[in-house]
Amino acid sequence: KSRQTLFDDPSPANGSQSSLFADDDSTPGGSPWGMPTPKKASKGEVISTLLPGGDAPDSYVDAFETVQSTEFGQSGTVDVAGMTRVMNAAKLGADQQARVMNTIAPAGSSLRRNEFNVFLALVGLAQEGDDITLDGVDERRKSKCWVPQVNNVR
């Protein structure tokens, strides 16, 4: 005596095929499981697009111009020595500086304007004692509640 259960593979009735969820795996694109997963943006891409000039406070633009115009900047970028100078001026400790640099590092050894904006936001989060994360920068960007200004960057 044979009993049919939920996990038995019943033979299709009248030549039709149906699955438990009413999708047909034999047709292209018929199954949601066959869809490719969207590519996740790299950390460097996120950093370069997270805080564009239009979303950053004017003081960030001014700080970039100031540092970029010194020996620590060239061709529209700020180098690691310039970033270190900014973090020293912001009175960040060695541990905070390391966390900022580890977060911003995927952007490379020098930062363009948008990346520098994210760098300044990370410095500000460190000054306030908040978590030094890209999520923290994104929350501040959305709320327009900017962190303390970095002074004495010259």
Instruction: Output the strand order for the largest sheet.
Output: 1-2-3
Give the number of helices: 6
Radius of gyration: 26 Å
Number of strands: 3
H/E series, N to C? HHEEHHEHH
Provide an overview of this structure.
It contains six helices and three strands; from the N terminus they run ααββααβαα. The chain has 154 residues and is mainly α. The chain has a three-stranded antiparallel sheet.
List the helices and strands and how they pair.
Blueprint lengths: L42 H8 L7 H11 L4 E2 L2 E3 H10 L4 H11 L5 E2 L1 H16 L5 H10 L11
Antiparallel strand pairs: 1-2, 2-3
Helix pairs in contact: 4-5, 5-6
What is the compact description of this entry?
The chain has helices spanning 43-50, 58-68, 80-89, 94-104, 113-128, 134-143, and strands at 73-74, 77-79, 110-111. It is mainly alpha-helical. β1 and β2 (77-79) form a beta hairpin.
